[in-house]
Each structure stands twice: as C-alpha cells, then as structure tokens.
Amino acid sequence: MADTKTHGFVLSGKKRAGADDFDGDDYFVAKKSLLPPLAPSWEDPAAALANARHEFGEHGGVNMSIEASATFTVMEPETMRRMFSGELGPDRDFFIYSRHFNPTVLNLGRQMAALEGTEAAYCTSSGMSAISSVLLQLCSSGGHVVASQKLYGGTHALLTHFLRRACNITTSFVDITDHAAVKNAMVEGKTNVLYFEAISNPTLTVADIPALSRMAHDKGVNVVVDNTFAPMVLSPARLGADVVVHSISKFISGGADIIAGAVCGPASLVNSMMDLHQGTLMLLGPTMNAKVAFELSERIPHLGLRMKEHCRRALEYATRMKKLGLKVIYPGLEDHPQHELVKSMANKDYGFGGILSVDLGTEEKANRLMNHLQNSTQFGFMAVSLGYYETLMSCSGSSTSSELSAEEQELAGISPGLVRMSVGYIGTLEQRWSQFEKALSRMQDSSLFK
Asked: Which CATH number fits domain 303-448: 3.40.50.360, 3.40.250.10, 3.30.70.260, 3.90.1150.10?
C-alpha cells in the first residue's frame, strides 16, 4: 500500500460518490478538517476515544453497519488496476478484499489507535497473530530481538523456538528491570526489536517504558510493548514505545467469547504490514471477521468503566490478602518493587491493573486452594485467559507459562505455586471476599501465611 494518505487509514472519509476516477484530494482534506482534534495535552484514553470518529450506520443508525463482504466492486475497469498499484486505497474508501482492509475492521482499528494514542492501528484474528506479524515485519532473516525473560508462554515459545527455526531470527532474553543488561544486549545495527510486556504475565513486573524506549532508540531499535494486561491503565506509545500490541480477547473484549488481536503504531508500519508484496498481515492472512470487529467496537466505549472496577477490586483483594499474611503480588501495593514507577506512568484514576498473583509455594497447595475457590465457595473459575467479568484463576507454571522450562520459569520468577487471578466484578465485593475467606479457611494450612 502506498505511503501517501497514510493518515486516511485512521480518519477516512465516508462512502465515495460519483465515478471511481475522480481526484478527490480537496474532498478528503475537507472531510478530515471537520473531525474534532485530539486534546493538546492528552491524558485520558477515555477522552481520546470520545474524540475519535463515530461511524454511523448506512441508514443513519447510531451503530455502524457491518461490511460483511469478502470482496468489493468497482464502477470503472481502470479503478482495479489503480487499487492494486496502491494509487487508490482505504484513505479514499476504495477496498479490494477483506483479507486486505475491511471497512468495519478499519473502524475498530481507529478506536484502538485512539485508545493507545497511536497514529494508526489494525486488528487481527488473535493476539499471537498480532505479535508474530509485527515481529516478522520488523525483522528479516538473521534479525535479532532483545526480549524480557518475563513473557506470556506463547510469546516466549515463538521467540525461543519458532522464529529461530523458521526465520533465523534470534532472541536474547534479559531481566527487563536490569537496564544495564538490556542496554548491553542490544547491538546497534543488528538488533531490530526490544520486546516486553508493560505488566508481565504472570509475575506482574512493571517495565520502565520511558527509560527502556530511550535506551532502545539511542541504538536505532524499535520498541514493541504488549499492553494486554493494562489497557486504559498504561499508554505505552505515549510513554515512548513505537508499537503496542494487544490480545483483544482479554479485557478489551470482556466476555471471554472472542479471540482477537491488535497492532497499534505508526501509519507507515500498518501500511507496510498490508503491502500487497511484503506485508505480513496481507500475506500471512490473520484476518479479523467483520462481524467480530462490530461486536468489539460496541464494547470499547465501556472499557474504561470495566477497567476501573477490575482495578478497584484487585487492589482491595490484594490489600486484604496481604493483611492475612498471604504472599501476594500486585503493582498497587506499596511493597511492590515497581509501585512508584507504575504510579508515575499510569493514567489517572484507572488503578493498577485487574490482575493479582498469590504465591502458595507449591503446585499442590495452589491446586487445593483453587479447587475450594471454585467448587466449594464459587469465588471464581479455574480457567486461563483474563479480563472476564467473573474471576479466573490458573496455576501459571503448569498452564499459561508451561512453555518455559523449569530453569526459565525460575529466571522469570514463576514459582510452582503461583496462582494468577484475573479479578472479576460480578457480585458485590464483600460477597466475593467472604467466599475467598471461606475457601482459605478450608485449607487449614498455616504454612500458606508468612
């Protein structure tokens, strides 16, 4: 896709009128100038979302229409050649095929770009497809990635095994809190990407995004941040990151019923990923269904409200668990190693995230507690994933981090008894806390407490 009119992928005009071969420059500039500008000092992602273009339905509906077509017609034969050459594109509302740009998915991308404060965004069929597509776009054969030791197991496996075997892309894993080690691992002219999670899965280590971004940029390295754990809470692109990726399946969806991902970053990157000859999104084909995009676009407007309640309850539970003597990890607690850092980076009033971890020491104790929490007191469900309205629990070492070896888990700080809890908001807080206490009392094991 041509790099001209790149802003149009974020702020395109409405349906084209008249013949396909009109020039249209003045028309589209005029349409864009009518859109409300972003506030000069952007501080709140909810405000940015409110400022984003609202897509109305084809017949004036307050909700946009779903463009479910796989392919799109043209009015003039010459138009198709101009579309495939990159001369006409989504910035002028010309669409080829929904594996390329789709109008409904494009609108969801605009919302994600507003949410993360990036120039553009496009959405994919899963979080892993977003991650792999970005890395393959930014790295060629022989490329090099520096990545945090503390990553989701699937991402760790992608970097450790698949990219090395299939693409000759190597990865150096480092302690992301050891800035000297990060700096030394990046080799100017060789390293393509510094990759880390804003808040790590499942150990909840918080990355110093501004410092790491400055360090990487000094060496000409792109910074890619997975912000799945902290939408609304942190805005990595506003803190210096180049690209933000998401598993939309989690908090952004909120219903544990959709698999989806997003790439948020410069328009030039999104365009390059859709290039007909070299683009990873275009050629690998991790396409999002337009009907899925429509559903997600209806959930984003209340993401801020949901995140505030996830975070409020997570902080309250973490505080009470700590008072009981449990070994609890949560960035909102003052004894968390990066508590002051996350306070300095977080968007105001959104809290510290909706995930907490409790270290029970052994997998046997972790499993016993989760069994009581689900089957005796109905506090939550034993399930992977996160961001659901019910509390979800898993023993990370034997589930979502099982791709890491025992040595790698130890380096990442994942103990065999670490239970990750995605705190839900259904029911009252006191009702759920009472269920937690009852389950804990049934354990009858003083070794759980400090």
From this structure: 3.90.1150.10
